[in-house]
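Entry 14. Structure prediction run on the chain below.
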Amino acid sequence: MEILAFGVQADEKPFLEKAFAGHHDIRCLDVFLNEDTAPIAAGYEIVSTSVNASLDNHVLQTLAAGGTQMIAQRSTGFNNIDLQVAERLGFTVARVSYYSPYSVAEFAWTLAMAVNRRIVRAANRTRDFDFRLDGLMGRDLHGRTVGVLGTGKIGEAFTRIAHGFGMRLLGWDAAENPACLELGMKYVAKDELLAEADLVSLHVPLFPETRHIVDAGALRAMKDEAILVNSSRGALIDTEALVGELRQGRFTGVGLDVYEAEAGLFFLDKSIQGVEDDTLARLMTFPNVLVTSHQAYYTVDAVGQIIETTVNNVLDYTAGRRSENVLVPAAPRTD
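Output returned:
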């Protein structure tokens, strides 16, 4: 069987081809699955998708009409898939339940340190042989307070690093993580965390109830000199409200690896035609804001684990097995 994989990065392709060798053939495309590209999948029983694919009602209908029966998502998040429609159409949908939490946690800290110590501005200056320190002053994080919204596997890894910095640890989550408690984390209400934290990092999944969890009110509750980092999902932050606060000169730094309207932008080269998203364009004009292109997960270790799990999900499907990675089970196969 040949599998069609959408949204495959150049670095990712050899990993996929090697992992599927001896099992199934795989055709890798660099285009993302959306309304325009869905017809390409006609005749493919299994397609593999990336986090920036759009699997809404129309796309799923197109896939079903073309004979696709299984969707193997190469990510943990699945907010881009209409699971109710997928179930109604009889798809099997599987995701990657787990991969290295250190990849994302370490990158979140990379963003935090970069905006705190003005690394991008400093690097740009020294490339022009400008070695002044004006405007580059940062702050020690030792002894300051970090607020972690979401203390699952990634939030825990982020907290362990914060503990190593010698920071006071505040957490917010639906359930307390015993490992974080052992590190000295104090769980508090979200408003208290936002008001007291010098650094706020987001590690909650995107659900309807967490959309814009950092809204205008939450942003106003934060310290003027706080650092805000988001390496989870873009829609956790109300970007328009964030721009409004930044225009008032607030926040030491904001590090964003995700953006709520990133689909159709991130992972693509828009350097020639430019970007029509005025909010993103305005966001990137602020000198205390650093935006990266959803790369927190992008390590050899994490990508390797993602692909290994994706292969296993496909093998489980073809063998009629079901694992914890299955989001939507179809009827058992009879062939």
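The radius of gyration is 21 Å.
Filed with the rest of this week's runs.
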